[in-house]
Design brief:
Elements: H1 3-19, E1 36-37, H2 43-46, E2 76-92, E3 95-114, E4 117-138, E5 146-169, E6 172-193, E7 200-223, E8 228-237, E9 240-241, E10 247-253, E11 260-266, E12 272-273, E13 276-285, E14 289-298, E15 305-311, E16 314-320, E17 327-336, E18 350-358, E19 363-364, E20 367-368, E21 371-383, E22 391-403, E23 409-424
Antiparallel strand pairs: 1-4, 2-3, 2-23, 3-4, 4-5, 5-6, 6-7, 7-8, 7-10, 8-13, 9-12, 10-11, 13-14, 14-17, 15-16, 17-18, 18-21, 19-20, 21-22, 22-23
Amino acid sequence: MKVKTIVVLALALTVSHLANAQSGTNSPYSQYGLGYLSEQTSGFNRGMNGLALGFREHNQVNHLNPASYSSVDSLSFIFDIGVSGQLTNFTENNQKINANNADLEYIVAGFRAFRHVGVSFGLIPITNVGYNYSTTNRVGGIGTTTYTNTYTGSGGLHEAYLGIGWEPLKGFSFGVNVGYLWGDFDRSVVNEYSDNTTNTVSKAYSASVSSYKVDLGVQYTARLSKQNSLTLGATYSLGHNLGADPTCTVSSTNAQTQVTETETFTVKDGLELPSSFAVGLLWNHSNRWKIGLDYSLQKWAKTQFPIYSTTGGVSTYALADNQFDDRHKITFGGEYCPKEYGRKFFQRMRYRAGVSYATPYLKINGLDGPKEMSVSMGLGIPIVNGYNNRSILNLGVQYARMDAAQLIKENTFRICVGITFNERWFAKWKVE
């Protein structure tokens, strides 16, 4: 199958997938804020737990730093698509439950447009919302009457981006991604009683986002010796209001008459995307060893979010402060390739590993949400056949743990598969 055909099929599959609002998470934590924050990395990054800011790959698309596009090989068209599957164990009060799901992760592409100028475009997830669970308790902790709260949610944010990277001076590059951001959020809480005398109350939260996203990136590579170089990379993402008007619909159904009373609240411009900054270093030894460290900061602390509350019999749905904390994340990882252009198969294999730690960005009932620790390993397997010897199969496995005092603990085992197709599209044929 030609890569051009694969591109068309993958685009159609991705658009269909996003249109159906499939979620890549089962986490109850996705009911807060904008949802569960997606990895946003490509297949080759996943094996290193997301390490990206200093990478300048000639045969991979590193969309996390648009300055890297200027390093893409001439005469090449790179197309990368990735999927994942995960198994998550949830633990609370010595009770455990497992959940699993699969997701189409991303689709990105890149090519050299002019000398020292690279272009990339693609579709990537930003946040995910997906959960469905319930809790049942006795009223007042005694007696036979019980009440059940059922929580459901779906949706998330996605981005379609177009980016460009330029290297005006040897060793120095800068770039920009401009994206269209869209998505829907649907969350609900239903409160029911077993005695058939108390009203059933439900709250439905919804929002629709149609906005933009801008990411800037720079890279500077210092040649330390003939075999060693050090690349400094940095990115900045613009924070702004998403222009969405979230609504909260509260319905009360009389248990005797089954008559439902409904009240709807709306918050104008009620959702925000915070600004973020990231910086990273990568040491490169003869394109054999690549070891790096990334740090990122997302400025969530000053971000407001709409909250429904009732005080003195008066209900309101309004923006509230102190719903989030700034999120800090640090990642250490690297890649080893014995001989990039070796003639033997195993000489061209890429071995990857990485570890990360992230502080919580959510506040739940006044407490800090879950911190996250994760570790990953991966392989870059060369695809060699009679037509193409430049494509790569990227495999990654990741273990992530999210926990917080007095809250649910999550242990996730994730498998990621990415295929990078690399073809010579712009070569001119010669006829003798």
